Amino acid sequence: MISYDLHTHTKYSDGRATVLEMVFAAEALGLSHIAITDHYTDKNNTWVGKVSEEIEEIRGKFSVKILKGAEGAVLNEEGGISVDKKIRDKLDLLLVHMGGEAKGIAKETDKLSKEDIIENITTAYTKAAENPLVDIIAHPFNIGYYFDIVVEPREYPIGNLKRIAEVFVKNNTCFEIMNNIWWWFPGIHPREFTRQYIELVRVFAKVGVKFSLGSNAHSVGGVGNLIWSKYVIEKTKIENQLIEPDIFVK
Ligand SMILES: [Zn+2]
Ligand SMILES: [Zn+2]
How remote is the CA of residue 99 from the centroid of ligand 1, in Å? Predict the structure, then answer.
């Protein structure tokens, strides 16, 4: 089984540990790769140089390969993101997520129906996936906790999912199987959420989408925690559609 973690946070954004501490955890676990992917937003955009330096300094001292990454934000239903080319060029890989910044999805949704929101999510994901700067969509369909309107995985029309999936394939954009995505859905029983998410992943798998693994760890204890992700992989039989993280190593 492939064992890598392409989604982690440090003190440079909202994580609790240093880069070195996160790498220690990855090395102790015998992971092949760890990506440091702090949040890159308008309010937190000065860390890329510092993280790069720290990574350069410790690369070679560990067998785990350390990737310089960032987690950008989708800003609106047109799929605009918080990271530009100048920043992306300094990184090995870029994740983007849908979070509280997304206009027409997480905020400014007053006049929108759930159907409108689903269309906006579909457009935002397809546009973000078409963006050549973007490698991985982090925890897709996390439209739950702190969003104005919750959209359960089962509520997406299959046609919308297929539309997104085709764009992922065409642009080589990965779908992250994030270990703790259930966190966004405190209103759904975790078993039920898992069942729904597995069905959604199956749609993407059938179209030929590639998947990546991430813990979204915000502390050393979370590094490499991919138990739920691996359960989903097993149920959907997508092991041979997981990306090989060496593609991001420069
Ligand atoms: Zn975070
Ligand atoms: Zn994250």
Answer: 10
Check whether 1 has a pLDDT greater than 80: no
7 CA distance to ligand 2 middle (Å): 6
Question: Within a 10 A sphere around the Cβ of 92, how many other Cβ atoms?
Answer: 24
Number of domains in the chain: 1
37: CA distance to ligand 1 center in Å?
Answer: 9
Residue range 74-122, pLDDT digits in tens:
999 999 999 999 999 999 999 999 999 999 999 999 999 999 999 999 9
Residue 162 CA, ligand 2 centroid: distance in Å: 25
We report the CATH number of the domain holding residue 21 as 3.20.20.140
Which pair of tokens denotes residue 8?
């982690």
Range of the domain at 49: 5-248
Report the candidate in 7, 32, 36 with the shortest Cα–Cα distance to residue 21: 36
> What would the pLDDT profile of 117-152 be if each residue is shown by its tens digit?
999 999 999 999 999 999 999 999 999 998 989 999
Instruction: Give residue 71 CA to ligand 1 midpoint distance, Å.
Output: 9
Helical axes 114-130 vs 158-171, angle rounded to 10°: 10
